[in-house]
Amino acid sequence: FERLKERSFQESHFVRGIYINDELIGIVNDVEIEGDKLEIGYAICSLYHNLGYGTEMLKIALEQLMERGFTEVKAGAFVENPASIRIMQKAGMTRIDFTEEIENRGKTHKCVYYSYKK
Hints:
Layout: H1 2-8, E1 15-20, E2 23-34, E3 37-44, H2 53-67, E4 72-78, H3 82-90, E5 94-104, E6 107-117
Parallel strand pairs: 3-4
Antiparallel strand pairs: 1-2, 2-3, 4-6, 5-6
């Protein structure tokens, strides 16, 4: 949290909170920046899943990042998380031919990636 909080004050990074009535329910942030290409990550509190907040948040983030001059934004999701994959699809992102094995909480997960281009 402290790392994300510190980054949120830096113009060179993209960190946004998603709020309902002043309550933080989610976050979207840059994971990696390479020139005019950026990878983002996002999370929504489970109490607010399946209500459209994730899709709306991602659409707005993609729009803001394109306005900042990025030409491509990527995001990934574990294959066993179809809700996150659907968020990326509904936000206008397209599956790319790249996968990765990521270890998280003691398990290895296959991660698929989606891209949004200007």
